[in-house]
Design brief:
Elements lengths: L2 H13 L113 E7 L5 E14 L2 E10 L2 E8 L5 E2 L5 E2 L11 E11 L10 E20 L2 E16 L2 E12 L4 E9 L4 E10 L3
Antiparallel strand pairs: 1-2, 1-12, 2-3, 3-4, 4-5, 5-6, 7-8, 8-9, 9-10, 10-11, 11-12
Length: about 300
């Protein structure tokens, strides 16, 4: 979560080519003197083995002007001086599968890659609590305690109610049960997290309003315009060391742009959400004014 800290920091910030494959040479013509791969004369290796090419003599025909003695009784073999027919092994047709249903010459198939990890939203329990330390944009150190008070609804959206004490000052906020994101009374969700969380996930969100503001001069009629835009991307799962220990945590980056009264500012966030801790365990912030802030998990107590 840590959306309370993000909102506080935001408020303070606003105040102040592929080449074509080479052409292959045509296969070289076979050397007539090389017997490798050549078929025996007078036969066709594939197809009808009894066919004889044009101009070739049949192997069973007697030589010209040569008398053929009658075969001996009971002997079905060809005459000794007759040319023996060439023996050619018939090759199986190209579309015939080899025994076992696979081509033995093909490389072994690899197992399918594992599905990418996708973590669902953790469920918070009443009494879950976390302790943080950090430094704000002003350069001052702070401590924070955050715990879950209960559940509720905001505009029909199911929420958890959190209480946070930052250096002795108590705040309350609601976060959505579907994403652990801060939601205000108007229903705007500061969507810094989205589930199921997986590497490469990205999204945008925004909010704007215009309200009467007596004495404000940015537009005629004293109307104050305000907007917030965010772009978020999940970098990937990392092993993140914190003061509370090391966690498998999702590294997320967000860029926020806030405009109010004709002025705007932006901030960049890097944060690590650990499913087992049910919260953001590290948050780094930097603004367009060159200021930086951070917070980190110090300890926690989680319900079962």
């Amino acid at each position: 979560m840590r959306t309370l800290v993000v909102l506080t920091v935001l408020a303070v910030s606003l105040a102040g080519c592929t080449e074509p494959p080479p052409q292959q040479a045509p296969p070289a013509a076979s050397d007539p003197g090389d017997g490798a791969g050549a078929s025996p004369a007078g036969t066709i290796p594939l197809g009808d083995l009894t066919a004889t090419p044009a101009g070739a003599e049949s192997p069973e025909a007697p030589p010209p002007n040569t008398a053929t003695p009658p075969p001996a009784a009971g002997n079905d073999s060809a005459p000794p001086d007759a040319a023996a027919p060439a023996q050619v092994a018939a090759a199986p047709p190209n579309d015939t599968a080899s025994p076992g249903g696979s081509d033995p010459s093909a490389p072994p198939s690899s197992p399918p890659p594992p599905a990418p990890r996708a973590d669902p939203v953790p469920k918070l329990r009443v009494g879950d609590s976390w302790r943080f330390v950090g430094q704000n944009l002003s350069g001052s150190s702070f401590t924070e305690e955050e715990h879950v008070l209960g559940t509720g609804q905001v505009g029909g959206v199911l929420t958890y109610t959190l209480e946070s004490k930052v250096t002795g000052v108590t705040h309350t906020a609601n976060v959505t049960r579907s994403g652990l994101n801060s939601i205000n009374e108007t229903g705007f969700v500061l969507e810094l997290l989205r589930f199921p969380m997986t590497a490469g996930l990205n999204w945008t969100f925004g909010w704007e309003q215009a309200e009467a503001y007596e004495g404000h001069n940015d537009t005629p009629g004293g109307v104050l315009h305000e907007s917030l835009r965010g772009a978020v991307e999940v970098v990937g799962l990392e092993s993140k060391a914190t003061l509370a220990g090391r966690f498998d945590a999702w590294h997320v980056r967000a860029n926020l742009t806030h405009a109010v009264g004709g002025m705007s500012s932006w901030m960049a966030l890097d944060y690590w959400f650990a499913p087992t801790a049910r919260t953001i365990v590290r948050l780094d912030t930097r603004t367009d004014q060159g200021r930086e802030a951070w917070s980190e998990l110090l300890g926690m107590t989680l319900g079962k």
